Amino acid sequence: MSLESKYWARTYVKTDPKILQETYDFWLKVFPKVPNPGPEDATVFLEFMQVKEQRDWKDFVDTSLMDELEREGFLSSVYR
User: Fold this and answer.
1) Side-chain half-sphere of 27: how many Cα atoms within 13 Å?
2) In whole numbers, what is the pLDDT of the chain averaged over residues?
3) Judging by beta carbons within 10 Å of its beta carbon (0-12, 13-18, 19+), is residue 45 exposed, middle or buried?
4) Which residues 6+ apart lie within 8 Å of 12 measured at CB?
5) Cα torsion 56, 60, 64, 67: sign
6) Which of 5, 15, 23, 72 has the fewest CB atoms within 10 Å around its CB?
7) What is the pTM of this model?
8) 23-42 in b/e burial notation, b at 16+ Cβ within 10 A?
9) Confidence class of residue 71 from pLDDT cuts 50, 70 and 90?
10) What is the pLDDT of residues 19-46, one digit of tens each?
């Protein structure tokens, strides 16, 4: 391991269980358990693409993959 790698590992890799748990808990609140796009995500996309006419968000977002993973129980198995 190079000297730089050792420095970065020593400086930025945290092994304190309390810090790791707090970090995990923080990001668990930020990211949804089922990362399915919704109307708010489509709105951002439509604004970015400068779509002027009013359209249904489901015309632009396909949730079938995440729906299937949730239905099959894969997503809930990740959080066990």
Assistant:
1) 5
2) 81
3) middle
4) none
5) negative
6) 15
7) 0.52
8) eeeeeeeeeeeeeeeeeeeb
9) very high
10) 888 888 898 888 887 888 888 888 888 8
